[in-house]
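Example 3.2
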Amino acid sequence: MARSSDALKGLEYKQAGSFAIVGSDSVSEYAPKGDCEPLEPVADLRFALIATSQRVRSVRSKARAGEPLRIGTSYPKTAGAVLASVGVNAVMDERTIVSGGVESLPWQPERGVDALFELVQSGESLRQNRLEIVADGLALVSLVKVTKNYQ
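Structure, written as tokens:
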């Protein structure tokens, strides 16, 4: 068992088998070179726009007005595309793009994050981190079989 990004890199560099089962979120983010076959949806796994309880109203207001929102995420390509499709002016840079642990970003003022774009399933980790969903179900996640043919 490997992280999705590692499994896709392994396929590309012939360090793994001939296929990997990963989430569609990883396929969107890492753009694997190979054939992609959609499989089953992952129960309730979806992307959402998230903010601290104190910032929910401000984030909604900025989004409606088309003002820039600094977005913390581990999925910058997906966030950019999905948020643009719903009219959110998302801004991301090296201070807001991380490789995990995005729930802590709103509590780090030096990062200047207005909201998060992250995967949500039950919402339990959001509650534990005093975060709320601003916009839910922005993109659903399903399993994908990525096959690499080494001929």
